[in-house]
Design a protein that fits this description.
The chain has a five-stranded parallel beta sheet with strand order 2-1-3-4-5, sandwiched between helices. The protein has four domains: 127 residues, Rossmann fold (3-Layer(aba) Sandwich); 137 residues, 2-Layer Sandwich (Alpha-Beta Plaits); 98 residues; 105 residues, Orthogonal Bundle (Arc Repressor Mutant, subunit A), CATH 1.10.10. It has 540 residues and is of the alpha/beta class. Helix 11 runs parallel beside helix 13 and helix 20 crosses helix 22. It contains 23 helices and ten strands. It is elongated, with a radius of gyration of 33 Å.
Length: 540
């Protein structure tokens, strides 16, 4: 309810205003009265009204002096001057004091109603904007860890671009990277017979377990590090060796870490890990080079750094910059999976063309390497698509993918094969709304209709259907044609309209019944969606 206070030295004016203002229709309430500016100040400080109606000529303190004191005290309510004098100088002072309106006595009831309605509409709009800003701030705080997590993944995989590569764009907790050293430890869960039999959901659980082991083992040796999951069975540890630790000590600890990771995964999870060590970098923007070196060491599997363990070291690493011509499959995997998950086929094809162009110029990109890439890409796509509710085995039930890999001997054949798969995925019935996507949206719609009076958020529903919030938002709009918030509001407004037409509840009761504690905000939304004010339906 909007609180209205009136300051006037004429008691008849005070009583007349009480009876003339349509309180219920405006969703307003009487907040108090005073006969002079000094008492008016005390009243306003006490009750903090949303709207103040005041005379100018009053004993003890006049209206303009009172308003000036209020503005100095940061009073942000709306002020309407109602004076028996029409004076340009007073009007000019009122304008300087940010007064909403300047009215002359006597005032007609229709005019009073129209002015108050306009002022209240302005208050409602400001309240809505304030609520949106508060919600935005809440969401920024809520998603800050997620944003930082994605930034770390992009910094490690090499997908940061533009201003994000500037040091001033770094999240505050990671600005120490500018003066630290960096080395990436690549981790790959070997796809043996046992792992190959895992469902994607089971594999996800094992990835989580590997993360816990990796963080625990690393914390025993290094105080500064970050862990990120990359794609499929790949993950990475970004370690920042302390400044006092020389290169020999660092390499020794890294080997010890790699051995411990392999042993712990085998002992506790019965998993085989390949671990690769990238080169140490002094510039944080070279971290992706260390990442690529770590995974290339795993891919090439040269002499083990420690006998009996699948721990491999980079042949290209070392301090400073790596070779500028280094092919970046890790970056390619991340960018390609991201484009397909958003259904952006054209973008995905461009990413494929750019990567294959690099492959074509490299001697080591022979038939066996290309077949390995095809297998790796397919495994990554299967995992990435599962994260957004798409199961590749359902799209390609009869496809002999393994046989198709055997026919790939040139880079252009890899590109052609991969583009065909991307097209099939992006244009599949699953992607257009069948399968798990449709089930998830059907559940959301049912949940909204059953719980519209509660505080429903997209994040809550994302947790219930095990799909990330961003992708769930995309899926919902793709299938229903409108955003989640728009659909929820429409359901609430339709239900509110039904309740109002029953004439059994007051407007504020209906607002609470459909999930709104702020009645003016509810009224604003209701008029936006129905074209009518709630009170117009109540009176009909």
């Amino acid at each position: 309810m909007w609180k209205i206070a009136i300051i006037d030295d004429d008691r008849q004016v005070l009583q007349g205003m009480k009876h003339a203002i349509p309180w219920e229709e405006l969703h307003a309430e009487w907040a108090g009265e005073a006969l002079n500016g000094r008492d008016g100040l005390d009243l306003i400080r006490s009750v903090c009204p949303d709207i103040l109606i005041t005379d100018i000529y009053m004993p003890v303190m006049n209206g303009l002096d009172m308003i000036e004191c209020l503005r100095e005290e940061q009073f942000n309510g709306k002020i309407i001057i109602l004076s028996g004098y029409s004076d340009f100088e007073y009007a000019r002072q009122a304008l300087r004091l940010n007064v909403s309106d300047y009215l002359s006595k006597p005032i007609s009831i229709p005019t009073l109603k129209e002015v108050l309605g306009r002022v209240i509409a302005s208050l409602a709009e400001e309240e809505e904007n304030r609520m949106k800003q508060d919600e935005l701030q809440r969401r920024l705080m809520l998603y800050a860890p997620f944003v930082e997590k994605e930034w770390i993944k992009s910094a490690i995989s090499g997908t940061l671009t533009g201003t994000y590569l500037q040091s001033e764009s770094m999240p505050a907790p990671y600005r120490f990277w500018q003066t630290a050293r960096h080395v990436v430890v690549g981790i790959n869960i070997v796809r043996d017979i046992r792992v190959g039999a895992f469902s994607l959901s089971d594999l996800n659980l094992f990835r989580f377990a590997v993360r816990n082991i990796a963080c625990e083992v690393t914390a025993e040796r290094f105080s500064a590090f970050e862990y990120t999951e990359l794609h499929g069975t790949h993950s990475a540890l970004l370690i920042h060796p302390p400044a006092e630790m020389d290169e020999r000590q660092t390499e020794s600890l890294l080997k010890e870490l790699g051995v411990k990771l392999i042993e712990a995964a085998a002992s506790y999870l019965k998993l085989t890990l390949y671990v690769g060590l990238g080169g140490i970098k002094t510039d944080w923007r070279d971290i992706p080079d260390s990442t690529e070196e770590a995974f290339r060491a795993i891919e090439q599997r040269g002499p083990a750094l420690v006998a009996g363990y699948a721990l491999y070291g980079s042949r290209e690493g070392g301090q400073g910059h790596a070779r500028s011509s280094l092919i970046r499959p890790v970056k390619f995997y991340q960018e390609l999976a991201g484009a397909i998950k958003m259904g952006q086929e054209t973008l995905a094809n461009g990413i494929i063309d750019q990567f294959v162009a690099q492959l074509s110029d490299r001697k080591e990109a022979g038939p066996e390497y290309l077949k390995m890439l095809a297998r790796e890409i397919w495994a990554i796509l299967a995992y990435s698509m599962y994260e957004v509710g798409i199961v590749l085995d359902e799209i390609f039930p009869d496809s002999k993918v393994h046989q198709e890999w055997l026919g790939i001997t040139r880079a252009d054949q890899l590109a052609e094969w991969l583009k065909g798969k991307v097209s099939d995925i992006c244009n599949s019935r699953q992607w257009r709304g069948n399968g798990k996507h449709r089930q998830a949206v059907d559940f959301m719609i049912q949940y909204i209709h059953e719980n519209y009076n509660e505080d429903i958020t997209l994040s809550d529903l994302a947790d219930k259907v095990y799909i990330s919030r961003n992708y769930l938002s995309y899926i919902f709009k793709n299938i229903t044609g409108e955003s989640f918030n728009s659909y929820l509001t429409r359901v609430r407004m339709e239900k509110a309209k039904e309740l109002l037409m029953e004439h059994k509840m007051l407007v504020y009761e209906v607002a609470e019944k459909v999930g709104y504690q702020n009645v003016p905000y509810f009224s604003t939304l209701f008029k936006k969606y129905t074209g009518l004010k709630p009170t117009e339906i109540v009176r009909s």
